Automatic annotation (TrEMBL), chain A:
Source species, domain of life: Bacteria
Stretches that traverse the bilayer: 36-62, 135-159, 180-200, 220-239
Keyword Membrane carried by entry: yes
InterPro entries named in the record: Permease_MalE
Entry keyword set: Membrane, Transmembrane, Transmembrane helix
One MF annotation (Gene Ontology) recorded for this entry: phospholipid transporter activity
Cellular component terms per the entry's GO annotation: ATP-binding cassette (ABC) transporter complex
Name this polypeptide is given: Phospholipid/cholesterol/gamma-HCH transport system permease protein
From TrEMBL, chain B:
Record-linked PANTHER family: INTERMEMBRANE PHOSPHOLIPID TRANSPORT SYSTEM ATP-BINDING PROTEIN MLAF, PROTEIN TRIGALACTOSYLDIACYLGLYCEROL 3, CHLOROPLASTIC
CDD domains: ABC_Org_Solvent_Resistant (cd03261)
Protein name: Phospholipid/cholesterol/gamma-HCH transport system ATP-binding protein
Keyword hit for Transport: yes
UniProt keyword Nucleotide-binding present: yes
InterPro entries documented for this protein: AAA+_ATPase, ABC_transporter-like_ATP-bd, ABC_transporter-like_CS, P-loop_NTPase
Amino acid sequence: MNFTNFGRYLLLLKAVFRRPEKFKIYLQAIFKQMDFIGVGSLGLISIISTFIGAVMTLQIAFQLVNDFIPKTIIGSVNRDSSILELSPTISAIVLAGKIGSAISSEIGTMRVTEQIDALEIMGINSPGYLILPKIIAGITMVPLLVIISMFLSITGGYLGGTLSGAVSPAEYIQGITTDFNPYTITVALVKAFVFGFIITSVPAYEGFYVKGGALEVAQASTRAVVVSCITILACDYLVTQLLL
Amino acid sequence: MIEIKDIYKSFGSNDVLKGISGKFEAGVTNLIIGGSGSGKTTLLKCMIGLHHPEQGIVEYDGREFTGMNFEEKIEIRKEIGMLFQGSALFDSMTVEENIMFPLNMFTEQSRKEKIERVNFCLERVNLEGKNKLFPAELSGGMKKRVGIARAIAMNPKYLFVDEPNSGLDPKTSIVIDELIKELTEEYNATTIVVTHDMNSVMGIGDYIIFLHEGKKFWEGSNKEIAHTDVQELNDFVFASRFMKAAKGKF
């Protein structure tokens, strides 16, 4: 059954990447989706990243209280954790919930109300028109959101650490600037790119093949979020294994 | 003209269509009628390629549609207009954007020309000035009319209409039926209407095929339908007390 779904997913992707009927229309749809995925998620990602950074700093400080370990380590651990794991993965899981459910229910509703049939009757490649702009917006905006998330997570760590007195501003800044390896950014962006693809394509698949009515659309939406999250975690492991 | 030859379609073990054939001429209103579950909508979807028949041929003016590849089908579909049962208007677009959508996709017209075409189509369905409304702001009858306006935006050669009267009051139903008939004659389109509404059958049925349990049981015109001796068709047409009482007056 899962192989059947995977096969159908690949066939859908093949249809998605067919040549667009009119680039101008697709471009407009891409910008609209970029606004929805990128700008629309900025607030949520900002709040989550800032608090995660702050909490991480407090927990690292709590676990590493030792006279033999310099407090600068708090900044460097928070930096690497944020860049390598927390910002890409937590952002992706949050976005899978927010964006994934929206994509799945939008396309699913279009399916059950015959709007997708209407597109096909007009001679439009419906997978391409509906899904391609979402995927392109996902693979471009999720990395940008992850970059913002990294910055805010590290800033949140600074605020949390200094306001609570767990670490001094100078120690934290020394920690985040010492032994920085830029390759970690590359790894994070590769993850973000992969997650952006998953967050948009998996829910689109779930929505596209909905049969039934409102109940089935809701079920597809839930399934889209669950499958996206599991796929994100599996790909997180794979990308980490391959790149580190 | 659209011709279907020996169409078979099943879903799992459920045989929905069992060898349907028919010829639908241009410029007349062709009706496919039958009870619920008789296979009307499935036949329509086989004709437009939303379902793939297991056997049989669909021809658009001699061009065999069923054997075409994706790109060839797209060329035929550009000549098709369709009104769906639930209108299938794009929720996120205004009335104007809905009607303009196929024009944006497939023509190189200027914005002014497209707006003119939209206004013409809206005028044609008596919805002037409703350009900026969203589908959620329209009544059922208005949605159907916008659906028709969108269907005729590209001057279709073939017009398909699925249950045009479902959910409409009798007066609005007649307005929609008359509009379909007028547009068919005006565009000399090959129009196929799937319905089980007896007002439509009697009002606009130039050529009718009656489906029962996936088979074609009868074909003829609205003038002939009242005098048929096919039991299944009589059971369908004269199902209500009113129609039974009116039978002798046809």
